[in-house]
């Protein structure tokens, strides 16, 4: 059976156990799903039915006797554990060197040049919590017109400013200036606009966050598909993560729930190619904040939406569910965690019960290209023939 549409859902940070090299990243023993499984808020019958509990190494969920999907765990080869590197590798681009991080803040010469180009001074320039930084610096930012610049354990340059006093368009312009500046040696994965509103002490971040990512330095599965004439629809942060490269249509979202509603709507439309979805709340709202019950409740909500999506799949659709890294809400600190991630495959053409064992991230991108019969110079080894019944016909 020929596959016409692939829905690839990335549950941002949904790790399922420490990777073999987790200790190199300070993450020995991390397990995002295991932490969530201790919460009374977790109820994921549809994920379990597809085979989540049957994945190699799984001990926190019972296996299904007759799983309704194919399943595997994926191991990252890139030397990083952030969103950008994770998605790039899932799309077939392995990053042998990590993107730069700045635990002690950005070099003075970079900050001076940023100030010169924007005409604004800088506040903070430290690793900081995104909510705490506006609580601590928001009033001074309004009073002085300076921009709050901060980072995290990720490869990010974040700029926070008040939407009313600075303006959203101006904030985005300053981010583009930073993106142009931060290339080469200082090429961070993302420059992130972090607008907020309100008056001291009641500042709140808005939904108008925007990521300005590096353009992938090599071919990726979305670019190869788009060049071959297929639709590549990005939902959520996908357009930002790939700097728009290879994304033919984009749908920004305000939450996981919004992301799934938009995915459900797209499932009712006719297209030929890939619907690539990122659901970031797991990471940004719960993982980094080490909110175990919130993360578990978000998984439960996703599972409910998944239960609505599955019946809408057409006979020539394929659903793939995976993740880009871990962010264990029961682990120390606030950083991402180096973990295996799940792979679940569902659809009428899937050989249910197929256990692919352990694969690498880039195999996913290679598989999507293989499904559509497109050759591309990306990393990875396709498992399409292992999970799909019958011979694929040419589209």
Quick structural summary:
This protein is of the alpha/beta class. The protein has helices spanning 32-37, 45-50, 83-90, 108-118, 130-144, 168-181, 221-227, 238-241, 256-267, 281-287, 292-309, 362-371, 384-387; strands at 5-11, 70-75, 122-127, 147-151, 156-162, 190-197, 204-205, 210-213, 231-235, 249-251, 273-279, 317-322, 341-346, 355-360.
Task: Describe it.
By secondary structure, this protein is α/β, with parallel strands linked by helices. Helix 4 (108-118) crosses helix 6 and helix 9 (256-267) packs parallel to helix 11. The chain is 31% helix and 20% strand. It folds into 2 domains: 5-96 and 216-387, Alkaline Phosphatase, subunit A; 108-213, Phosphopentomutase (Alpha-Beta Plaits, 2-Layer Sandwich), CATH 3.30.70.1250. The chain has 13 helices and 14 strands. Mean pLDDT is 96; it is low at 391-395. Strand 4 (147-151) and strand 5 form a beta hairpin. An 8-stranded mixed beta sheet has the order 10-9-11-1-12-13-2-14, sandwiched between helices. Strands 3, 4, 5, 6, 7 and 8 form a 6-stranded mixed beta sheet that branches.
Rough outline = globular
Output the structural class. Answer: alpha/beta
CATH superfamily of the largest domain: Alkaline Phosphatase, subunit A
Query: Can you count the helices?
Result: 13
Write the element-wise H/E pattern from the N-terminal end onward.
Answer: EHHEHHEHEEHEEEHEHEHEHHEEEHH
Could you say what the CATH architecture of the largest domain is?
3-Layer(aba) Sandwich
Largest sheet: 8 strands, mixed
Q: What is the domain tally?
A: 2
Using only CA atoms, what is the Rg? Answer: 21 Å
Described by its quaternary structure, the protein is: single chain
Strand content: 15-25%
Order of strands in the sheet with the most strands?
A: 10-9-11-1-12-13-2-14
Helical residue percent? 25-40%
Provide the residue-averaged pLDDT. Answer: 96
Record field, number of beta strands: 14
Distance between the termini: 10 Å
> Stretches where pLDDT falls below 50 for ≥5 residues?
391-395
């Amino acid at each position: 059976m020929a596959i016409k549409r692939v829905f690839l859902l990335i549950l941002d940070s949904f790790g399922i156990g420490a990777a073999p090299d987790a200790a190199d990243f300070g993450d020995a023993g991390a397990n995002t799903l295991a932490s969530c499984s201790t919460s009374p808020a977790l109820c994921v019958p549809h994920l379990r039915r597809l085979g989540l509990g049957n994945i190699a190494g799984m001990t926190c969920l019972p296996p299904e006797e007759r799983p309704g999907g194919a399943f595997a765990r994926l191991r990252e080869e890139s030397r990083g554990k952030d969103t950008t590197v994770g998605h790039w590798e899932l799309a077939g681009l392995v990053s042998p060197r990590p993107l730069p991080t700045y635990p002690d803040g950005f070099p003075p010469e970079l900050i001076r040049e940023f100030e010169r180009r924007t005409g604004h001074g800088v506040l903070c320039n430290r690793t900081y919590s995104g909510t705490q930084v506006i609580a601590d610096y928001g009033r001074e930012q309004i009073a002085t017109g300076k921009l709050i610049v901060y980072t995290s354990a990720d490869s990010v340059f974040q700029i926070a400013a008040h939407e009313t006093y600075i303006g959203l368009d101006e904030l985005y312009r300053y981010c583009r200036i930073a993106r142009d500046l931060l290339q080469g040696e200082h090429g961070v994965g993302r420059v992130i606009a972090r607008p907020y509103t309100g008056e001291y002490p009641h500042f709140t971040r808005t939904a108008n966050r925007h990521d300005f990512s590096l353009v992938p330095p090599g071919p990726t599965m979305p670019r190869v598909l788009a060049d071959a004439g297929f639709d590549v629809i990005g939902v959520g942060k996908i357009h930002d993560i790939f700097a728009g490269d290879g994304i033919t249509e984009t749908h920004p979202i305000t939450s996981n729930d919004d992301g799934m509603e938009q995915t459900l709507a797209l499932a009712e439309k006719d297209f030929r190619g890939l619907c690539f979805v990122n659901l970031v709340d797991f990471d940004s709202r719960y993982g980094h904040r080490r909110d175990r019950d919130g993360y578990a409740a978000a998984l439960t909500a996703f599972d409910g939406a998944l239960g609505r999506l599955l019946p809408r799949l057409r006979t020539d659709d394929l659903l793939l569910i995976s993740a880009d890294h871990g962010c264990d809400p029961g682990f120390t600190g606030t950083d991402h965690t180096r973990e295996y991630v799940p792979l679940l495959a569902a659809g009428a053409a899937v050989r249910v019960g197929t256990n692919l064992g352990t694969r690498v991230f880039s195999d996913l991108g290679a598989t999507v290209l293989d499904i559509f019969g497109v050759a591309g110079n990306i990393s990875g080894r396709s498992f399409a023939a292992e999970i799909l019944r019958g011979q694929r016909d040419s589209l």
